[in-house]
Each structure stands twice: as structure tokens, then as C-alpha cells.
Amino acid sequence: RLPASAAARVSTKDAALYLWRHRYLRALVVFTSILGGAFSFAQAPTILYFLETQGVAPAAIGFVTAGIGAGALLGSLVAPALVRRSGRGAVMLGANLAAGVCLAAVGVAPELVSAIVAYAGMAFAVSLWNVPWGALRQMIIPGDIFGRVLGIIRSLTWGLFPIATMLGGLVARVDLRLPYVIAAAVTIIAALATADLVTAVLGEDSRSARAIGMIALLSTPWVVVTGSLAYDEAAVMLLTAAAASWLVRGSVGSTTLPDAAIGALVGLLLGQLVDIPALPDVREWLPSWGGAFIGL
Questions:
Q1: Chain centroid offset of residue 238 CA
Q2: % helix / strand / coil in the chain, to the nearest 5?
């Protein structure tokens, strides 16, 4: 540990070099910037979305945002217990995947209640990520340079948020639901691509987390494509696919069946469950073969 006088002389350059040379922390900062940018992108049309798409009266907007805030508060309260029970990496990865699915649900919510529940779920998931992420930073960064490194991290991440919000507003001019769908895809893909970063480096097994992530990735496109799909039906699809995936893994062993094969099986399952009335000409082949393709 540096003496107090030496610690006071730590420059921003020293903190920046520390962050750059710490590959794991640097990668997590990039990942956090992508996620935070996606959330900011999605949140740009929030007020107009509830006013115009969901028909909320202007005087009631405060109640809507209070409900969303309650989800965030609950997430911050339960995060420590979940981390103790399931591990920091699993909670962080699961939170990101849940946030992505909830964003997609907001984008296709058929009415106000499901939109508020999905949005509150997203806020809940973001808090689940933020609590262990903050603790992880304190574990990694030496106390002597923590303040300066944290300042750089927040400058990099928060500095991108206004730009992402502006881009989300531009996209929302096409459709107020579109930013949520795009942000959902970015969040889930980024979470899957970095599953080992969040879990394996912390000494936790990421294979099960990847399986759950594949289920979320398979379910979300169907929810988006079938825009009229009710929120509860999407939940049934997700739970059914999860059950099928775990049954397959339990019967053949977790190391004998490739992840791609499991993805194809779950894709076939989801394809059979989803009916697409707007596309009658392709209904006969899209459910099975389209689902298998997405799974692979």
C-alpha cells in the first residue's frame, strides 16, 4: 500500500495505465459501456412510449415511473442474498440476460400492465447487475487509486450514455417500440458473448449459464417476430424451452451433447409452439426448420 503522500500523487495517467493494463477489468468496462449504452438507447422514448403507445394519461406518468423504480429498488435489496446463494458471476450474467428479455417484452407489450411489469423487471435486473459490479470493482482496484480509476470508468461509460440516448430518440421516430427491441438484441448477444468473462474468471462454471442464455436468445426473436404474442404466452414459451433444455442435458449428460445441438432442439420446440397467422404461406416450414436454424 502506498504512503498517504504517495497516494496523493497518483495521477490520472497512472490510473488510466492501470485500467488499460488490467485486461479483465478493461474488458468488463467495455462490456458495461455496451450494456449501459443499450439501456440508454432503449430508454430514450420512455415517456412518449407510455403516453402514445400505451395510452397513459399525462397526470399518471409519475405512477408508472414509480412502479418501474420499485423494481429497481427491489433488485438492489435482493442482490446481496442472490450473490451469496448463487455466486457473483451467475447473478451478473443472469441479470443481463433477464434485462434483455424484459426489454424485448416492453417492445412487444400488448397493453399497459404488461409494459410496466416488463419495464420494472428490466430495472430489477439492472440493479442486480449494479450491486455486484460495484463490489467487484472494489475487490479488484487497489484502494490507493480507486477514486481515480473509478472516475475514468464512469467518464468512459456515462459519457457514452447521452450519445446512445440521442440515437435511441432518432430510431424512435420510426417506431416507439423499436429501440427496446434493438437494445434487447444487443444486451442478450453481448451477455452471451461475454459469459466466460463474467463467470469463468471468477472461478464459476459458465456452462449452465450459457444454456440459460441460449434459451433466452431463442425465445426473444419469436416474441419480437410475433408482435401480437401476449406477454404471458412468451413466459410459457421461455419456461417450456428451459424445461426441455434441462431434460435433454439431464438425460444425455452435460458433456456429450454439443451446445449447438441443444440449441437446435430448443429451436425446434419453440418453432412448433409459435403460430404465425400473418405468414400463412410459410407456416408449414418456418416453425420447424426456421427454429432449428436459429438454434444452430
A1: 15
A2: 80, 0, 20
Note down pLDDT in tens along the chain; length 296 residues: 445 445 557 788 888 999 999 888 888 898 889 999 999 999 999 999 999 999 999 999 999 999 999 999 999 999 989 888 888 888 888 899 999 999 999 999 999 999 999 999 999 999 998 888 888 888 889 888 988 999 999 888 888 999 999 999 999 999 999 999 999 999 988 888 877 666 654 444 445 445 544 545 554 444 444 443 344 454 555 555 555 555 555 444 444 555 555 555 555 555 544 444 443 443 343 444 444 444 44
- The distance between the two most distant Cα atoms of the chain, rounded to a whole number of Å, is 75
Q: Which residue has cell 451433447?
A: 257
pTM for the whole structure: 0.65
Q: How far apart are the first and last CA of the chain?
A: 50
Helix (H) / strand (E) containing 16: helix 12-21
Query: In whole angstroms, what is the distance from residue 254 CA to residue 16 CA?
Result: 42
